[in-house]
């Protein structure tokens, strides 16, 4: 059987949706008719998605921190973990971020007088 032809046929009949949706039978579905409720995904598929997500995080962090690759690996892992969990917008806008003092230049404030 020609796999390309059947794949094209299924794409034509099912469509390609990159976000979850409910099919006519009411099942949560994604992609080209993948029934997430009854079939789910395999461990191999989950790990492939994770690898793609990690690569996306790394690319994003390299644009945010121009010397990201020069950081110790432990610091890189922490940043990837944070970016993964917060997402791009959340990582950049997290007001309580512990990163601000580390990576955002601070303007010197007025000098304080020493008081006894």
Task: Explain how this protein is built.
- The chain has 116 residues and is mainly alpha-helical.
- The chain has two domains: 8-40, no CATH class; 42-104, no CATH class.
- 51% of the residues lie in helices and 10% in strands.
- It has four helices and three strands; from the N terminus they run H-E-E-E-H-H-H.
- The protein has helices at residues 3-14, 43-64, 73-93, 100-103; strands at 17-22, 28-31, 34-35.
- Strands 1-2-3 form a three-stranded antiparallel β-sheet, with no helix packed on it.
- A hairpin with a 2-residue loop joins strand 2 and strand 3 (34-35).
- Helix 2 (43-64) crosses helix 3 (73-93).
- It is elongated and about 50 Å long.
- The protein starts with a helix and ends in a 13-residue tail after the last helix.
List keywords for this structure.
116 residues, mainly alpha, three-stranded antiparallel sheet, 4 helices
What's the helix count? 4
Quote the average pLDDT: 87
Biggest sheet record: 3 strands, antiparallel
Order of helices and strands: HEEEHHH
Q: Low-confidence stretches at least 5 residues in length (pLDDT < 50)?
A: none
Tell me the distance between the termini: 88 Å
Helix content: 40-55%
Task: Summarize the structure in short.
The protein has helices at 3-14, 43-64, 73-93, 100-103; strands at residues 17-22, 28-31, 34-35.
Write the SSE topology.
Blueprint lengths: L2 H12 L2 E6 L5 E4 L2 E2 L7 H22 L8 H21 L6 H4 L13
Antiparallel strand pairs: 1-2, 2-3
Helix pairs in contact: 2-3
